[in-house]
Each structure stands twice: as C-alpha cells, then as structure tokens.
Amino acid sequence: MVPVSESLHLDLFDSVRRREVPVSFHPPRTGTPPPWPLVVFSTGFGGSRDGYGGLARAWSEAGLAVAVLEHPGSGPEALARLNRLPRPRRSAALQVMVRDPAELQARPLDVSFVLDQLARDSRLDLGRVGLGGHSLGAVTTMAVGGIPLALSPGSRHSLRDPRPRALLAMSPPTPGQFFALEDHIRLDRPILLVTGTRDHGPFLEGPPEDRAGVFPLLTSGRAWQAVFEGADHMTFAEMGLNHRPFMAPLRSLSVAFWRWALAEGPPLEAGFVAREVAGPERLRWESSNEVEESSGQLNSRAF
Length: 303
What we know:
By secondary structure, the protein is α/β, with parallel strands linked by helices. It has helices at 53-61, 76-83, 87-98, 101-118, 136-144, 244-263, 270-276; strands spanning 8-14, 19-26, 36-42, 65-69, 124-134, 164-170, 191-198, 223-232, 283-291, 298-302.
C-alpha cells in the first residue's frame, strides 16, 4: 500500500522494463474520506516530478489525489544532456530527442505501470482516473487514450490503457505529428485540449494556431478546447515571464473539468466557463457538443 497521508516522492521500479519511474504523489488536501479519484500527470520533455506544482496543488485542494510522473528517458537528465551541447546544435538535437521511438513508446507504459502500482492502495478509486499531460506529455496522454503512435510510415503502435476515463492535453501536437490524421477517431473518451495563441514548442513545425487543428479530428467522444489569447508554451508548465496571469483561469478550468469527469460536477457549458473560468484573460472556448442547429458546425465562443 502506498502511504497517502502527505505529499511524498515515490521511486517506482518496473522490473520488467528495468526502468525507474519517479513520482510525486499528492493526496487530497480537503480531508475528503477515501476512496479518492486520481489524476495522473505526464510531464513534458525535461519535466520533473516536482514540476507543475500549482496545478497539482489546485487539483489536490479540489479533493483529488494527484500523481505527477517524471519520465526518465525524457526528464531532467535528458534536458541536462541537451544543454551541454553547443547552443547552435541544440535545436536539431531536441527534434531528435523528442521523436525517439523507444522513449515515445516507454512513456505510455510508464503511465500504465504507475496505475498498476497505485492500484494497490485501497484509498484510491481506480474507477475514477483522469490522465493529463503537457507538450510531450500530451502526446503520451493521447496515446494512452487510444490513438496509436505512428513512428514511421505505415507503422502503428497502440499503447491504449482503458483505465483513464477522461483526458487533459495541454499544448497538444499538431495534426500529423506522432499520430496519423485518420487515427484520431480512435480516441473516444472525454478530452479537454488547452493551448495558447503563442504556443510555440519543440516539435511545432507550423504556426502556434496549428495546435488547435487537432480538435476537429476528435469526433468519437466529447471534446472541448480552450485557447488562451497570449499564452505561450511555457505558460502551461508554470514557467516564463508570461505565465502568472493565466494560472488562475487554467487551474479553475482544469478543476472544473476533473470535477465533471470524475466527481459528477457541473457540465462544461460555455455559460459555466464564462462565469467560473474566463476571468480577465481572453479565452476562445470550443465544444463538440455545442452545435449550431442551423449549420451543424462546432460552436466557438470568445470571452
């Protein structure tokens, strides 16, 4: 049984894959009696289990247990190796590192392994699991959600895990990166996509708005998309000079999503988002269920 009385580090070792998966575990801060819903979070390239602390705290204060994963092949040590290279070589090296086929397949398996380990704790409700991720962690999230990785022309690698019942993908990959366009239909769970109008990233080949192009491809389940005006890639990692104004609405939005998905909270309607989330930052909100009756087009609203 994993102790869950306070936040702690877990060094979990997968003996089958000979791979250690560091985890930062945060129990609910509300005094809510168990069993608790669980949110697992996959960090981006270079991400540490101690990162994304503001989101983890907000979710634990909402009554959720939270496990933040550090992926050893693309975590802080990988970032340190990158930074030891001469500056002119780093951009090209990063492109290679984030597309390493072995690591891309290992990351979803890390998520499944951690869920196996946490299932030993009876205070966690493995029937109410959410999975989130940022950047490369969003790729991991979508792969676990059911979209097979397309690592080479004609190849497909399915790493689907049925346990997460809702997904949060921040800075998702642009269409055609990591996944074949036609395979997005295989993701049939509720998903919230979050990006920004300045969301450049390590594997974005086009303009930032291209990230929003994945939303129309997700036609098999309920999908929402929030696009924050002015938010950049590191905003969602809680870093950089520009992130602070976006933190409160981002935390409110993600908490509302998890409450709806895992704890029977209010639905994510446009009116609810406008009242509870939008705050001072301009936000474009899209929902696959808010459809204009006359045109059948996805409804897009700006607050």
